[in-house]
Write a structure and sequence with these properties.
Number of domains: 3
Number of helices: 14
Helix content: 25-40%
Keywords: Pyridoxal phosphate
CATH superfamily of the largest domain: Type I PLP-dependent aspartate aminotransferase-like (Major domain)
Protein name: Aminotransferase class V domain-containing protein
Family: Belongs to the class-V pyridoxal-phosphate-dependent aminotransferase family.
Order of helices and strands: HEEHEHHEHEHEHEEEHEEEHHHHEHEEEH
Largest sheet: 7 strands, mixed
CATH class of the largest domain: Alpha Beta
Structural class: alpha/beta
Bound molecules: pyridoxal-5'-phosphate
Cofactor: pyridoxal 5'-phosphate
C-alpha cells in the first residue's frame, strides 16, 4: 500500500521516519525532504515541558483579557427601534433559569407549549409549527432551503431590504429568483401580484408582510387564492409584524411563514418560529433532491419537535438554546393571557399615538398611503438640514433610548421607531416623542454632545 501511494519516494520517507523516531519529517518538493525536531509530548499530547513553563510564566501564553475581570455591564435602555425590543420582567427572569437538558421531558413540554403558542400567534392548525434555533434570517433560509430546489422559480416581492435579501438567498441556493419590484414605501397590489404570477408561473411567491426597512405592510387578503389559482406556494416573512397586527395564516391560505422572537413577541433574539401548511409539507416531502442544509432540514427537525404522530419518539437533531425556549414560552404565555385581539389593539393605539405625535412635531411620515403603513415600525422623513445621526446619538446618550436610522433604500432618509411588544404603550410612546423633539432641537443647533 505504501508503494501504491508514493512508490519509492514514500518508502524512503518511511525509513527516515524510523531513523528519527522522535522527530518530524517534512516533505520538501516531490522527492526530497528535510526534518525538524519535534518536541516530545506527554500522554495528553502536550509538549512535555510546556506546563511547567506555563506555571513559571516562561511560555508565550496569551494574557487573560483584562475586560473579563470586571463584572458584566448591561445598562438599562429603552429599545424603540425596529427590534429587538425590551422584554418583560417575567421573560427576563425565565431566561435566567438553570439549564436542563434538551432531551428532558420538561423541555419537551416547554417545546409543546411553544408550538401551541405559535399556532395561536400564527392562527394556524399546522402540525409543522416549530422553532428554528437562530435569528429571523435563519427562518428565511429555512423556508427557502426546504421549498426550493435548484432551478426552481421563486417570485419575490421587492420593495425594501428584506425582499432583496430573499433574492440573494434564493440565488445562493441555485434557485431562479424573479424580483417583483415596487417603489420603497409602497406595497404591491393584487393586480401587480397576479400579473407576476401569470407571467412567471413560479413555484413559490415570497412576500414580506412587514418591510421594516421602509415601514410598509403588505396586504395579504386574496393573495393565497391567487397562489392556488396559479399553483404556487405562498411564503410570508412576518418578522417585524407577527403579534402586532391581525394575521390569519390558515384563513389567508399562507403555505409557509416565519417570524422572529425579538420583536412583538417580546423574547430575546435568537429564535425563529416557523410554520408549514399541508401544501408546503407535501412539496418538501416530494423533493427530488435532498434539502441542502442539515440544520434546517424540516424532515428531521420536525421529529425533534414531534410535529407529526405523537407515538413516534423524538430523535436528537441538534442542541437548541434551551434558555431561549424558557423565555419564548413565557412571552407566549403573556401573549395568550392578554389575548391576541387585545395585543393587536394595543399596538394599533400605540402606533396611532406615535403618528399623531410625529405630526404635531411638524414631521412627515415616509409612507404616503395610510393603508400601507406598518403599525409596528414607523418611518419618519428626516427633515431637511438635520443630521440624523446626531439625533439618534442624542437620544441614546441623553435618554438611553434607541431609535434607528434608515436601512437599505431608506438610509439617510428616515428615522425608524418601533412600538413592539411591551413597549407598545402610551407612556413609552410619549417618552420617545419627547426625546425625539429634544434630539431634533439639539441637531438644529448643530450641537456637540
Ligand atoms: C422583515 C424582517 N425580516 C427579517 C429580519 C431578520 O431578522 P434577524 O435580524 O433576527 O435575523 C428582520 C430584522 O429586522 C426583519 O425586520
Amino acid at each position: 500500500m505504501l508503494r501504491n501511494i508514493c512508490g519509492t519516494a514514500y518508502r524512503s520517507i518511511f525509513y527516515q521516519r524510523k531513523a528519527y523516531a522522535n522527530s518530524s519529517a517534512v516533505l520538501v518538493g516531490k522527492l526530497g525532504f528535510a526534518h525538524s525536531t519535534q518536541p516530545a509530548v506527554d500522554s495528553q499530547g502536550i509538549e512535555t515541558n510546556r506546563m511547567s513553563q506555563v506555571a513559571n510564566g516562561q511560555t508565550g501564553l496569551l494574557p487573560p483579557p483584562k475586560g473579563l475581570v470586571a463584572p458584566i455591564n448591561v445598562p438599562q435602555k429603552l429599545l424603540m427601534g425596529p427590534g429587538p425590543t425590551n422584554v418583560s420582567p417575567r421573560v427576563q427572569q425565565a431566561s435566567g433559569l438553570q439549564l436542563i437538558g434538551h432531551m428532558h421531558a420538561e423541555t419537551f413540554q416547554i417545546m409543546d407549549e411553544i408550538k401551541a403558542g405559535m399556532q395561536y400567534a400564527f392562527q394556524t392548525k399546522n402540525q409543522w409549527t416549530l422553532v428554528i434555533s437562530g435569528p429571523g434570517h435563519l427562518g428565511m433560509e429555512a423556508v427557502l432551503v426546504n421549498l426550493l430546489e435548484p432551478g426552481d422559480k421563486v417570485l419575490i416581492g421587492v420593495n425594501g431590504l428584506w425582499g432583496k435579501r430573499a433574492v440573494d438567498l434564493a440565488n445562493r441556493l441555485g434557485a431562479s429568483p424573479l424580483a417583483l419590484e415596487q417603489e420603497a414605501g409602497k406595497s404591491l397590489s393584487l393586480d401587480e401580484i397576479e400579473q407576476g404570477l401569470s407571467k412567471h408561473k413560479p413555484k413559490v411567491l415570497f412576500l414580506v408582510h412587514s418591510e421594516s426597512s421602509t415601514g410598509v405592510m403588505q396586504p395579504l387578503v386574496g393573495v393565497g387564492d391567487l397562489c392556488r389559482k396559479y399553483d404556487c406556494l405562498l411564503v410570508v416573512d412576518t418578522v417585524a409584524s407577527l403579534g402586532g397586527v391581525p394575521f390569519f395564516m390558515d384563513d389567508w391560505k399562507i403555505d409557509a411563514v416565519y417570524t422572529g422572537s425579538q420583536k412583538v413577541i417580546g423574547a430575546p433574539p435568537g429564535l425563529a418560529p416557523i410554520s408549514f401548511g399541508p401544501r408546503a409539507v407535501e412539496a418538501i416531502k416530494s423533493r427530488k433532491s435532498p434539502v441542502k442544509s442539515y440544520l434546517l432540514n424540516m424532515n428531521e427537525l420536525t421529529i425533534q419537535w414531534q410535529c407529526g404522530d405523537p407515538s413516534i419518539p423524538r430523535i436528537y437533531h441538534h442542541t437548541p438554546p434551551v434558555n431561549l425556549f424558557y423565555a419564548l414560552r413565557e412571552a407566549l404565555a403573556e401573549l395568550t393571557e392578554e389575548g391576541l385581539e387585545n395585543v393587536w389593539k394595543r399596538h394599533a393605539e400605540a402606533s396611532a399615538r406615535l403618528h399623531a405625535g410625529i405630526r404635531s412635531l411638524g414631521l412627515k411620515l415616509f409612507v404616503q398611503n395610510e393603508s400601507d403603513r406598518l403599525p409596528t415600525v414607523t418611518t419618519i422623513l428626516v427633515p431637511e438640514g438635520i443630521d440624523w445621526k446626531k439625533v439618534i446619538q442624542y437620544l441614546m446618550e441623553k435618554h438611553k433610548i434607541e431609535i434607528a436610522g434608515g436601512l437599505g433604500p431608506t438610509v439617510g432618509k428616515v428615522f425608524r421607531i418601533g412600538v413592539l411588544g411591551c413597549n407598545a404603550t402610551p407612556e413609552k410612546v410619549d417618552r420617545v416623542l419627547q426625546a425625539l423633539k429634544e434630539g431634533l432641537e439639539f441637531a438644529k443647533l448643530q450641537g456637540h454632545l
